[in-house]
């Protein structure tokens, strides 16, 4: 293997997992165009993920999962996105949050253990629905308009959540809700009932097959034990690296498409393919700088997070930086790839225009660019002068 995507494989175990991810990606790529054009949810992709055991890769070994590291998760998510960015981003929220919950143990142990066993035995998935039209992204600090009202033996949850990725396939999910009686916000584990309605609102420029519809909760009853404490260790949010890994995978696919095109396309006025042109080689070199810089940072930070367990909260600036660089560089890489291919890159018969639309979504996944810049500035200003 001398492909650049294989550069960060460190062991035979990781190589075996990489092959599994490649096999899945090869299935997804053949379905990606249809789901993108239809805006439909790729149920068959998730059946393949379940069959391959991918849904349990971050479940702790004590519950029957694989307990893979963040580094391995980044590697696998990148490869899935090489086949289909929407599927990779969607499943990334599940496997990433399982890693996060296993690291922080912020849920009551019995509830977390039950979820993990269900993931292993039944292929259950999880996501958190927190965004709302009025409050915007929860990472900005908005208070949810979804409310939780206490009853004798539990809670009644009412509200509407947006950007609810994986909503067509989940039978349980977490929502954030405001508790008026306590003037605070809490998380609740919801099991889908007839009081949960899916409103198919997801019709976007990119990442069209993530199933990120609106979810309406009409007085959904939640047992009192399903209020999640939110306590636990601070892991620095390392699990969110599944996001930049996804956009790097899309960028790699665009880069490889452009390379293949440059090596094979020969206009009739040339004696050799356009890869021989200095201008094309210049663009390829620029793609490599953006790609290799971003991946070097991404894998280095993931490795540090795995190793530096006690210092994970202090890695927040580096984790945000990795997302910032990977996402913005991915946009540049796809743009350069399209310049190499030329006007043909705009064709709906080629994947480049989908890559171009999909990578734009990374700007709106957390942490957002201005948040990263603010975090880095605060870290710099807090340094002790020499």
From TrEMBL:
Q: Which residues form the Acyl-CoA oxidase/dehydrogenase middle domain?
A: 130-220
Keyword annotations for this protein, in alphabetical order, are: FAD, Flavoprotein, Oxidoreductase
* CDD domains for the chain: ACAD (cd00567)
Query: Does this UniProt record's set of keywords contain Flavoprotein?
Result: yes
According to the entry, every stretch annotated as the Acyl-CoA dehydrogenase/oxidase N-terminal domain falls at 11-103
Signal sequence coordinates: none
Q: Annotated region Disordered: where?
A: 132-154
Acyl-CoA dehydrogenase/oxidase C-terminal domain span: 249-361
Cited PANTHER family: ACYL-COA DEHYDROGENASE, ACYL-COA DEHYDROGENASE YDBM-RELATED
Q: What is this protein called?
A: Acyl-CoA dehydrogenase
